[in-house]
Amino acid sequence: MQSVEDFFLWLYEAHGINLTIFSDSWDRARFLAGILTTIELSVVCIVLSVVIGIVGVWLQGTRARAPRMAVAAYIAFFRGTPPLVQMYFFYFAVDRALSSLLGVSGGLVSNFGWAVISLSFFAGAFNVEIFRAGMSSVPGATIEAAEALAYTRFQIYRHVTLPLALRASLPALNSNLVNLVKTTTVAYAIAVPETLYVANQIWSDEYNVVEMMNVVWVTYLILVGILVWMMHAWEKNMRIPGYGAAR
Amino acid sequence: MTWTPDKPIVSLRNVRKSFGDFEVLKGISFDVMKGEVICIIGPSGSGKSTLIRCINALNDIQEGSITLEGQEVHDPKLDKLALRRKVGMVFQQYNLFPHKTALQNVMMAPVLVLRQDKAEVEKRARSLMAKVRLSGKEDSYPGELSGGQQQRVAIARSLAMNPDVMLFDEVTAALDPETVKEVLVTIKALAEEGMTCILVTHEMGFAREVADHIYFTDRGVVVEHGPPAEFFANPKDPRTREFLDQVL
Ligand SMILES: Nc1ncnc2c1ncn2[C@@H]1O[C@H](COP(=O)(O)OP(=O)(O)O)[C@@H](O)[C@H]1O
Ligand SMILES: [Mg+2]
């Protein structure tokens, strides 16, 4: 570690490139914490947004009018407004309203919690649409075959529609989740110490905006690259011989 | 009223079915006894698929009655799932689950729907695969099988539920002429074992060979029916004659 730090100190002295996240253990620690926060935020939001997508599409398929209307309103709202505004709305408006309603002082949910909630709902709205498109690609005749075999509605959903719809949805889901990871930077606005936020702190302290900007680019390229790689591996793993691409 | 095998296992009385204003079935009646094989023939669009789909409640009806083992199929209080456990159905387009192997396709319903023991179901599924002469194809996915092979998996999938009645809706219509035979052989073996079968088919030779009774439908009514020997040798209605002239 000492030699790495020495190298980057030399790099600064000889060439003026000030990468304190390598040459300074304090900066390194807070930057790594920022990356970890970004990863944590991404993973939790990916899981929750997929759950929201699945539940939303299930509610859309019910006969009752109320849940279908609610899902439609939810999608219209979260797809039609900017994620930053949504996050402010939760953090400033919803938090305050709920706190006063429940008589709690000092806020109900942490900054991180509100970022998770608003980003999951944001990406979830797109996931509902993505899964709905995937569902409509499942042939009615396949579902009918399951009906004829006396499957319940839930068994059809769980064992036929969902696995086929998921496969059809993966490419679109892939790009929405990439988008979600990039949108986690919005949490900066409510002071969640994620990558961009700590990068800003570092460049304010160290006056190395150019270096840190480059570090931020590379960090997101790597994070998104890992996600894309995992999604492709998943897609490949889910591929069925003789089905899909050829048709 | 309990059903006994001396009464029809499937009975239709004056069944009427409309899609909106369009009446597809205009009063159909017939009886099927246990172990009987009946074939429904008729021009395309005459309502054969609709008719067969009413028997396992995939379609509802507006008037009349359909009973299976004495139970009214279209009684709103009837448990549709319980009914469908007793009725197997094979479709023109096979409709296998493309994300499951052939063996999994056969095993799924008994395990999920009937909650039978998996190991025991697998044993039965393997012997059903052998019965439809597809041993060795257990681990193939539907997309890797020919149409005729897929259709035989679909038959095995239905049989795995141990149904009392099998419905076949033009199950060879989508197949190449060479593979039609392998599927018909499978159905014939089933019929000879005493399975109650209701078949919609365009294969007149097959109908003549396996059916106990032939029903000719046109525009939503049964125009003429009878045992195959009589029906084919001596069709009475001009519409039947015209149809047979076209297909024979
Ligand atoms: N779900 C449906 N909605 C509206 N019309 C239908 C539907 N299913 C079938 N039909 C119509 O009912 C008629 C009979 O169809 P079908 O039972 O498939 O005939 P067949 O199997 O004898 O060719 C056709 O005119 C068809 O267009
Ligand atoms: Mg038809």
TrEMBL record, chain A:
Keyword Transmembrane helix: yes
Family matches, as PROSITE patterns: ABC_TM1 (PS50928)
Keyword DNA-binding: no
One Gene Ontology molecular-function label: transmembrane transporter activity
A cellular component term, taken from the record's GO annotations: ATP-binding cassette (ABC) transporter complex
Gene3D superfamilies per UniProt: MetI-like
Keyword set, alphabetical order: Amino-acid transport, Cell membrane, Membrane, Transmembrane, Transmembrane helix, Transport
GO biological process: amino acid transport
Domain ABC transmembrane type-1: 35-228
Pfam families (UniProt xref): BPD_transp_1
Membrane topology: Multi-pass membrane protein
InterPro entries membership: AA_ABC_transptr_permease_3TM, ArtM/GltK/GlnP/TcyL/YhdX-like, MetI-like, MetI-like_sf
Location in or out of the cell: Cell inner membrane; Cell membrane
Listed transmembrane segments: 31-59, 71-92, 112-131, 215-234
Similarity comment: Belongs to the binding-protein-dependent transport system permease family. HisMQ subfamily.
PANTHER family the record matches: GLUTAMINE TRANSPORT SYSTEM PERMEASE PROTEIN GLNP, MEMBRANE COMPONENT OF AMINO ACID ABC TRANSPORTER
Task of the protein: Part of the binding-protein-dependent transport system for glutamine; probably responsible for the translocation of the substrate across the membrane.
Protein name: Amino acid ABC transporter permease
Lineage: Bacteria, Pseudomonadati, Pseudomonadota, Alphaproteobacteria, Rhodobacterales
From TrEMBL, chain B:
Pfam families: ABC_tran (PF00005)
Domain of life: Bacteria
Membrane topology: Peripheral membrane protein
UniProt entry keywords in alphabetical sequence: Amino-acid transport, ATP-binding, Cell membrane, Membrane, Nucleotide-binding, Transport
Example of a GO MF term: ABC-type amino acid transporter activity
Annotated localization: Cell membrane
Cellular component terms (Gene Ontology): plasma membrane
Domain ABC transporter: 10-244
UniProt entry tagged with the keyword Nucleotide-binding: yes
Main subcellular localisation: membrane
Family: Belongs to the ABC transporter superfamily.
This protein's name: Amino acid ABC transporter ATP-binding protein
